[in-house]
Design goal:
Largest sheet: 4 strands, antiparallel
InterPro entries: Lcl_C
Radius of gyration: 29 Å
Strand order of the largest sheet: 3-4-7-6
Keywords: Signal
Strand content: 25-35%
Number of helices: 4
Distance between the termini: 64 Å
Number of domains: 2
Number of strands: 18
Order of helices and strands: EEEEEEEEEEEHHEEEHHEEEE
Pfam families: Lcl_C
Structural class: mainly beta
Shape: globular
């Protein structure tokens, strides 16, 4: 039961409330505060992360903690000055944590970037049509395949088939069975209809790809380079051609110094990784151009070398999706080709 006493003075009206338990309102000595939300340096999508909330007068009952794009939340009290929050970052948005007092006042908010985790998974081919001796049958319509309907063709199985049947769950979007997300210059995910982006995350493989630009700058899709790597542990015995500063190593160093999309561990892809972008359901270029519009129908360098003395490097040709080896340094030319760099949070 609450008892209210009115005290009237010459210049003020005081309303004093008390109850039978003699409970008083919170005083400054009992009000919680938050000075920092500490997130680990390396955070991966789909992997639980433990965050420290630092302050004073902290307990799970003294504050309200809200998360965005970080699920399966668990909160434990380490001490009166530290709360531990564990949650699992998701890929669709930039994860964030905000702490409020019990009256709803925001004490502190922290956003962070969750890195992709390489899965070693392989993409499907992008082929969604079947073929007979003479015809291409759109979406493998059974009536047109005749005796070929008994064959399990590429388009009848895998992620591409699941996508056509509406059975494939995607974190982002993409043609056929591909699952991509556009990423901005700072590393934040964007909507599929974004018109400006600098990187593309492959949600199936966990790899993050350079998107390329068409502005005449460092990342312009018209720029070509010679294959060059002086590291004998990686070059197969042949370092290629330095070609002034117009080579693969110099470009990688420039992109890492820039910190493209928030990262500084960009590199040339392996042949398998780069071929994983090939969309064999189309040609010139053989890639999902909604996510990789600035792509040449030509050779792109990989990190792999071949030959008895490492004189060849493997390229992926995005006109038809062929994978082949070419000389790092041809006798009468500098042999420049295109580059698309890749990175992954963990492999």
């Amino acid at each position: 039961m609450t008892r209210i006493t009115l005290l009237v003075g010459l210049s003020a009206l005081l309303l004093v409330a008390c109850n039978e338990n003699n409970t008083t309102a919170a005083t400054p000595s009992t009000i919680p505060s938050v000075s920092a939300i500490q997130v680990p340096t390396k955070v991966f999508i789909g992997q639980p992360v433990t965050v420290s909330i630092i302050g004073s007068k902290l307990s799970p009952n003294s504050v309200n903690i809200e998360t965005v794009a970080c699920t399966d939340v668990a909160i434990t009290q380490q001490s009166a000055t530290v709360l531990r929050l564990t949650c699992t970052p998701q890929a669709q948005q930039v994860p964030s944590i905000q702490v409020k007092n019990t009256q709803g006042k925001l004490l502190l908010k922290q956003t962070f970037i969750a890195d992709s985790l390489a899965t070693n998974a392989l993409n499907d081919t992008g082929v969604i049509d079947c073929q007979t001796e003479t015809d291409i049958i759109s979406l493998c319509a059974g009536s047109g395949l005749g005796e070929w309907s008994a064959w399990q063709q590429d388009a009848n199985v895998g992620r591409d088939y699941q996508a056509q049947q509406g059975q494939l769950a995607k974190l982002g979007a993409g043609a056929a069975g591909f699952d991509f997300t556009k990423i901005d210059i700072s590393g934040k995910p964007l909507a599929a209809n974004a018109t400006v982006w600098h990187c593309v995350r492959d949600n199936h493989t966990g790899l993050l790809w350079e998107a390329k630009t068409n502005d005449g700058g460092l990342e312009d899709y018209d720029n070509t380079y010679t294959w060059y790597n002086p590291d004998t542990a990686q070059n197969g015995g042949n370092f290629g051609l330095e070609n002034g500063n117009k080579n693969t190593l110099t470009y990688i160093q420039a992109i890492n110094q820039q910190g493209l999309c928030g990262y500084k561990d960009w590199r040339l892809p392996t042949a398998e990784q780069l071929q994983g972008l090939v969309h064999y359901g189309q040609s010139s270029p053989t890639i999902d151009t909604h996510y990789f519009p600035n792509t040449q129908s030509a050779n792109y360098w990989t990190a792999e070398t071949t030959g008895s003395s490492g004189q060849f490097a493997v390229v992926v040709m995005f006109e038809f999706g062929l994978v082949r080896s070419i000389a790092k340094n041809q006798r009468f030319s500098t042999n420049e080709n295109y580059i698309r760099l890749v990175r992954a949070g963990h492999e």
